[in-house]
Amino acid sequence: MASLKEVKSRINSINGTLKITSAMKMVASAKLHKAQEAIENMLPYEQKLHGILRNFLASGVSVQTPFSINRQVKKVAIVAFASNSSLCGGYNANVIRHLTALIDDYSAKVGKDNILIYPVGKKISEAVKKMGMEVAGDYQHMSGKPNYQDASDLASDLMAKFLKGEIQKVDLLYNHFKSTSSQILTHETYLPVDVNSQVTGDDNAELKEHASDYIIEPSPEVIMSSLVPKVLRMKIYTVLLDAAASEHAARTMAMQIATDNANDLIQELTLVYNKSRQQAITNELLDIVGGTMA
Asked: What is the Cα–Cα distance from 83 to 100, expressed in whole angstroms?
């Protein structure tokens, strides 16, 4: 059994760790509150923007956009969102594991050299470099401080390469914030845009009634050429906010679990310390009594 001094030293050490994890939990919780507020404020705008696109497509116009052209996939880009720091549970590990599986899948189809990775976050960037994959650029700052301009620049780069035919498909890989205790790993196709999926059969019947009186100026083509890029830019920004909220939620839960474990361990060690101290006192008393009787 460990000595009283060793047990006391362990208790003090764990108390120090407890203070750190408790403080980190409060910081992560405050950041989560801001990130959750940001994504909740953004979602109505994005939903309304998608609603405009759905109403426009339901109005019966026949219009094409270059962002919806399906080409033979020879080169694919993957935008993966993770964090710049650790101590957030399995948040980064889940993204890296799914990205590895996705790369293996595309490698069998187009070859490893034809996969371009856009890593948003330091952890995913380091993992991609270890895999020996081609990295499109440094986007670590976007994970730490999400802003629309950076997201718009990234979306513009992806759209430009897609229009030039340099890449034929773009995928998004990120954690979707559902609640503080639940983040859903999400894999979506960003480009090409499937305009037909914007309006299903049931939606089409419901929306046509409202869309029948639309007067489109100057032309459907001009509206579509302006609306689709806006939707695509807003999608990147929304995913960025979504991933940030998921990161802070995962870190809050991880620090809460670490704090609870530290409390449990302190209770166990305190019990061991008290038992050892009681045993030591009993032994001293027995020695005194034995000496007195002798």
From this structure: 17
Tokens standing for residue 194: 């499937």
Q: What is the pLDDT of residues 193-241, one digit of tens each?
A: 876 555 444 444 554 455 445 677 777 778 788 888 998 999 999 999 9
pLDDT digit string, tens, across residues 278-294: 887 887 777 777 777 76
* Residue whose pair of structure tokens reads 């670490």 in the numeric block: 258
Separation between Cα atoms, residue 233 and residue 229, nearest integer Å: 6
118 residue type, one letter: Y
**Among 143, 146, 145, residue whose Cα is nearest residue 88:** 143
Cα-based angle 95, 96, 102 (whole degrees, multiple of 5): 90
Residues 75 and 116: beta-carbon distance below 8 Å: yes
Q: Which residues contact 6 (CB under 8 A, 6 or more apart)?
A: none
CB 158 within 8 A of CB 166: no
8: enclosing H helix or E strand: helix 4-58
